[in-house]
């Protein structure tokens, strides 16, 4: 609730997704907004940590009226209109799983769904729309991206249907800026990780269990930008504030911005530290991309069902980004990361953090030397959870 007692509603589409959950909680903690969580499921099912009894922010807000869950399929405009009624701001984060190679699904949600979002924003007189795009909208799957900024054009040919449809949706959102007073901008977060991740760490563990963790594809020197999930949420809030500020802040409107932790790291080094922390010793072997790539692209049962051939491109290329154009404006989104990634990954035994598992991935996040990861021992577990330790000292 804003100062003065005014009730202000915002909507987060795809609100039960990985990054969206963090944005919802950050918005609720700010006490500036009531949050409407819009997602596909017919009803909301809270994780134990989200329950009011556990002190969960979302559970408490749902009970008090500070949050509301709305079952919404973006492909149904009537449902979108219902979800957006009375909202001042929409954070459009919904998207299909990028690992699914299904063009029809990506187009129907990313493009047609975004059209419905834009139309509903205008009909419901929403003031600001922030769209969660992807850095992949400027990646062709062939040419490395080394410290590119937002002036990088869309490629003539995209890496996959997910990237192509995200780019088309981004264009729609940018074009919609200024329509009937609607202000829009797009956020491109790179390779998100953090608590609640159900993709990166589980995939690495599955690869390690299958004996595939000892291999590096290519020369292992490609640089990558990863983004801690709290920084992604923070970036969205910064974008909304910049749009709302008026004046120079309106220069943010109709623009797209990369969001990263601003500390590139070798892709395989990052992965190695996670795997080593999980107890999988790595007798590293380099596999030439010219050998592996044709095998991974075979139209046979060799390839995992949901793995796109284009995923291989991410293993081989530099994908690093900077925010040069954003810094030109006094009214830029100013999305300086709240948390830096401490380049250490460990595993510790715990019963409190992960029930019935003996290993929890501990990624230390922060700048202060006070942050320590002390590990006395570990062993492989039936499952792995993720625990992010946040330092109380933030970047200035």
TrEMBL record:
Question: How is this protein situated with respect to the membrane?
Answer: Multi-pass membrane protein
Instruction: List locations, semicolon-separated.
Output: Endomembrane system
The cross-references to Pfam families, in alphabetical order and at most eight, read: 3Beta_HSD
Q: Which InterPro entries match?
A: 3Beta_OHSteriod_DH/Estase, NAD(P)-bd_dom_sf, NAD(P)_dehydrat-like
The alphabetized UniProt keywords are: Lipid biosynthesis, Lipid metabolism, Membrane, NAD, Oxidoreductase, Steroid biosynthesis, Steroid metabolism, Sterol biosynthesis, Sterol metabolism, Transmembrane, Transmembrane helix
Q: Which GO terms describe its molecular function?
A: oxidoreductase activity, acting on the CH-OH group of donors, NAD or NADP as acceptor
Of which family is this protein a member? Belongs to the 3-beta-HSD family.
Instruction: Write the protein's name.
Output: 3-beta hydroxysteroid dehydrogenase/isomerase domain-containing protein
């Amino acid at each position: 609730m804003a100062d003065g007692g005014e009730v202000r509603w915002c909507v987060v589409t795809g609100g039960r997704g990985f990054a969206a959950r963090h944005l919802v909680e950050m918005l609720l903690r700010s006490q500036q907004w009531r949050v409407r969580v819009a997602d596909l499921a017919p009803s909301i099912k809270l994780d134990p940590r989200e329950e009011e009894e556990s002190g969960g922010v979302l559970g408490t807000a749902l009970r008090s009226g500070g949050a509301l869950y709305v079952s919404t399929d973006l492909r149904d405009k009537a449902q979108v209109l219902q979800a957006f009624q009375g909202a001042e701001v929409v954070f459009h984060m919904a998207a299909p799983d990028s690992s699914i190679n299904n063009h029809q699904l990506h187009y129907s949600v990313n493009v047609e769904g975004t059209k419905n979002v834009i139309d509903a924003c205008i009909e419901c007189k929403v003031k600001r729309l922030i769209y969660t795009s992807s850095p992949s909208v400027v990646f062709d799957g062939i040419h490395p991206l080394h410290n590119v900024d937002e002036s990088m054009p869309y490629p003539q040919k995209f890496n996959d249907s997910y990237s192509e449809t995200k780019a088309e949706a981004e264009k729609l959102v940018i074009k919609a800026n200024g329509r009937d007073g609607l202000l829009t901008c797009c956020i491109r977060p790179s390779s998100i990780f953090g608590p609640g991740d159900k993709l990166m760490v589980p995939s690495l563990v599955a690869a390690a269990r299958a004996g595939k963790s000892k291999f590096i594809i290519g020369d292992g020197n490609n640089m990558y930008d990863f983004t801690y999930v709290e920084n992604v949420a923070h970036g969205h809030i910064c974008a909304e504030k910049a749009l709302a500020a008026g004046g120079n802040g309106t220069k943010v409107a109709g623009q797209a911005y990369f969001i990263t932790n601003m500390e590139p790291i070798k892709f395989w080094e990052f992965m190695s530290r996670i795997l080593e922390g999980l107890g999988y010793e790595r007798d590293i072997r380099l596999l030439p991309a010219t050998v592996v790539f044709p095998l991974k692209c075979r139209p046979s049962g060799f390839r995992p069902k949901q793995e796109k051939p284009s995923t291989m491109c991410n293993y081989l290329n530099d994908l690093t980004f900077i925010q040069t154009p954003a810094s030109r404006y006094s009214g830029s989104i100013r999305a300086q990361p709240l948390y830096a990634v401490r380049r250490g990954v460990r595993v510790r035994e715990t019963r409190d953090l992960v029930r019935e598992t003996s290993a929890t991935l501990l990624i230390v996040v922060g700048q202060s030397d006070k942050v320590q990861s002390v590990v006395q021992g570990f062993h492989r577990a039936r499952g792995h959870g993720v625990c992010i330790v946040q330092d109380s000292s933030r970047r200035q």
